């Protein structure tokens, strides 16, 4: 069993409108936009990152906004719901705030003994705020959400699968332990993680496969401390039979990717070097940052991308 994985690193989804996306995460959820860059494989598309003050691994939601993309269709083989951790007793505040700001599809429930407030993002993304006791992480406190209610980072995420067997084995190999199950749901958690510690599997044998689009998660990333740990994980996965990409430099972390048996794209990302690698912490996410290979094309890229007003 691997011991290098420390919980989630980030979750990357697709969106329609970049301005709506930025407004929702910064002005509705009170997160900080910690990076405004481009999709490294398609530089005519933004890559926006939101999280705590410095984009600590385990707090970072990222988006590729494609202006004319069709909405995704939920189904199996994808991340179903992204869970954000909030302090105990804060859900009434969030329910009123989300209602006032006309966020849709709000409902309350209790899953595995945790109260959660479900709601939809601007592209009908499936989110939930989960009350977590004794989460010592600090949220972004320079927005308009107070410390007593601020999002601390991810609690975890759920996977929708037609057959959970092989993915359950994979999570066990990655260091997750089964901690609870009820009906079609099974919870896995990693010990001594970064706070973004749980993965829930929802088994839906009769459901159709998901179709990716706006509001769909593109991939889910798990955190390791550094490149040495990442190489150890890569070798272990390949020895087990997984087809893993070479290490890819994403400027703010190094990444490897592989497709899981249930169809979900997993990434293993390093905690180093972090989002302050190319700009001062006080001004994270303000300027458009480009990777070196696209800097000479900055004028053309800035002409294509629609500006985002803060």
Please sum up the structure shown:
By secondary structure, this protein is an alpha+beta fold. It contains five helices and 16 strands.
Secondary-structure blueprint:
Blueprint: E1 8-15, H1 18-28, E2 32-39, E3 42-51, E4 60-65, E5 78-87, H2 91-100, E6 107-111, E7 114-120, E8 126-132, E9 153-161, H3 165-173, E10 176-182, E11 185-190, E12 198-203, E13 217-224, H4 227-239, E14 248-249, E15 253-259, E16 265-273, H5 298-304
Parallel strand pairs: 1-4, 5-8, 9-12, 13-16
Antiparallel strand pairs: 1-13, 2-3, 3-4, 5-9, 6-7, 7-8, 10-11, 11-12, 14-15, 15-16
Domains, number? 1
Largest sheet: 8 strands, mixed
The percent range for helix content is: 10-25%
Strand order in the sheet with the most strands: 2-3-4-1-13-16-15-14
What structural keywords apply?
alpha+beta; 5 helices
Molecular structure report:
The protein is α+β, with helices and mostly antiparallel strands. It has a single domain (5-304), classed as 2,3-Dihydroxybiphenyl 1,2-Dioxygenase, domain 1 (Roll). 16% of the residues lie in helices and 37% in strands. It has five helices and 16 strands. The protein has helices at 18-28, 91-100, 165-173, 227-239, 298-304; strands at 8-15, 32-39, 42-51, 60-65, 78-87, 107-111, 114-120, 126-132, 153-161, 176-182, 185-190, 198-203, 217-224, 248-249, 253-259, 265-273. Strands 2-3-4-1-13-16-15-14 form an eight-stranded mixed β-sheet. An eight-stranded mixed β-sheet has the order 6-7-8-5-9-12-11-10, with helices on one face. Strand 15 (253-259) and strand 16 form a beta hairpin. The longest helix is centred in the C-terminal third of the chain and has 13 residues, at 227-239. The protein is globular, with a radius of gyration of 18 Å. The N and C termini lie far apart (45 Å). Keywords: Dioxygenase, Oxidoreductase. Residues 7-132, 153-271 form the VOC domain. InterPro entries: cNMP-bd_dom (IPR000595), Extradiol_RC_dioxygenase (IPR052537), Glyas_Bleomycin-R_OHBP_Dase (IPR029068), Glyas_Fos-R_dOase_dom (IPR004360), VOC_core (IPR037523). This is Ring-cleaving dioxygenase. One of its GO terms (molecular function) is dioxygenase activity.
